[in-house]
């Protein structure tokens, strides 16, 4: 834990922050130590206006619930800056009720048999309700293959 009690977790990215997508180069290129394929199980991925939105979906109904992405580890000396930039991109403000995305810790599976706890930006409560009611689920949970 750091002085402000936030753990220094890796980040699981599944949309515009993935390699080759719109925000990767401007926010992550040259600022990360590692980037490996990973999967978030028990989550659904929905298409939004220009961006994907994931949320917890542990039972998945009749569909396998998973989201495909990358696990990124910022360079240690840039961690706080990367965290602040990602929070700003996702319009996440700790404790605000109307966040579009919430930054939460979740277990993700990267290369290897185990899981890693990582920060994930999931759809906020109001957006999740709207997506469940009227959204378009992305089959297979992979934004790059939508």
UniProtKB/TrEMBL annotation:
GO molecular function: transferase activity
Residues annotated as domain Gamma-glutamylcyclotransferase AIG2-like: 11-145
Record-linked InterPro entries: AIG2-like_dom, GGCT-like, GGCT-like_sf
Protein name: Gamma-glutamylcyclotransferase
Keywords: Transferase
Lineage top rank: taxon: Bacteria
Source species: Actinacidiphila oryziradicis
One Pfam family, short name: GGACT
Tagged with keyword Transferase: yes
CDD domains the UniProt entry points to: GGCT_like
């Amino acid at each position: 834990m750091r002085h402000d009690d936030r753990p220094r977790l890796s980040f699981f990215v599944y949309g515009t922050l993935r390699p080759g997508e719109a925000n990767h180069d401007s926010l992550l290129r040259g600022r990360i130590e590692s980037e490996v394929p990973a999967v978030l199980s028990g989550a659904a991925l929905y298409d939004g206006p220009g961006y994907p939105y994931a949320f917890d979906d542990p039972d998945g109904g009749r569909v396998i619930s998973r989201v495909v992405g990358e696990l990124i580890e910022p360079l240690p000396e840039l961690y706080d800056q990367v965290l602040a930039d990602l929070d700003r991109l996702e319009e996440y403000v700790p404790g605000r009720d109307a966040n579009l995305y919430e930054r939460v810790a979740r277990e993700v599976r990267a290369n290897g048999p185990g899981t890693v706890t990582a920060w994930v930006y999931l759809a906020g409560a109001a957006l999740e309700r709207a997506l469940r009611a009227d959204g378009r689920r992305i089959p297979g949970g992979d934004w790059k293959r939508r």
